Amino acid sequence: MDAKSRKRFIIIWAVILLIILIGAVLTTDPAQEEEPIRTIMKDAVLHEHSKVNFLWFGPVNPAVISAYTVTFIIFIFALFVRVFAIPRFKDQPGRFQLLLEQAVGIFDGLAVSNSPHRHAFLGAYVFTAGTYIFVGTMFELLGVLVPATNGGYIALPAPLADINGAICMGVFSYSVILSGGIAGNGFKGVLNTLKDFSLPISMSFRLFGALLSGALVTELVYYYMTTSFIIPVFVAVMFTMLHALIQAYVLTMLTALFYGEVSERHPADQDTAALNKV
Length: 278
What we know:
The chain is mostly helical and 278 residues long. It has ten helices and four strands.
C-alpha cells in the first residue's frame, strides 16, 4: 500500500468513526425510555413476555417458529438440489457442485478420521447436524419479525438459542453415539456410552451458552446510548458468524469422536467372537 492509498484509507475510517460518534451523541438514551436492561436480557433468555401464537398450540417461544422455519428451508433446498441439481452434475464440477462436494467432503472426512471402522451413517448425521446448526444460527441475521402476544413484534431468534432446542440437539446426538455403540459392540457398547452420562448435558449447554451469549452481548451493546448506533450491526454479525462456524464444528467433531470410541471393536473382543464361531 503506497502513501496515497494509506492516506485515503485513514481518511475513510476517520469519517466512519466520526459518523458513529455523531450518531451516538444524537441518539436518545434507550435506558430512559425502555424497560431495565435486566428485564430485557432475562426475557431474551426465557421469553416469558414475548411469546408467539402458533396454530392451535397457543403461545410458544419464538425459537419454536424459528426451528420449523429453518427445517422447512433446509428441506426445500435439499429437495431442489436432489431433483434439479444432482442429475446435472458433471465430471468437471461447476461452482455450485464444487461447493457442495467440498461441504460434504469436510463432514465425511470428519466421520472417517474419527470412526474409520464405521462411518457411513455417521457422515450423514454430522453433515445434517452441522448444516442445521449453521443455517439455524445464520437465520437470526435475517431479523424476521412476527407478532408477539404482548402486542408488539419480535425478531425470530436462532432455534438453538432456546434451551429446549439445545437440549434436543444434545440428546439426539447422544442417541446417535449410543446407536453406534450398540451396532459396534452390542450391550458392551451401551455400557461404554452410558459411562459418559454427562455428555448430552455438556453438548446442550455448550450450544445454548455459546449462541445465547451473542444475543445477550448484542442486547447489551444496543441498550446503551454510546454503543447503540451502527456498532450493534458489527457485533451481531461477528458473533453470529463465529458461533455458526465454531458450534457446527464442535458438536459434529465431538459426536464423531465419541461415536468412533464406543463403536470400535477391540482386538480382544474380535478374538472372542472368532473363538465363539469356531
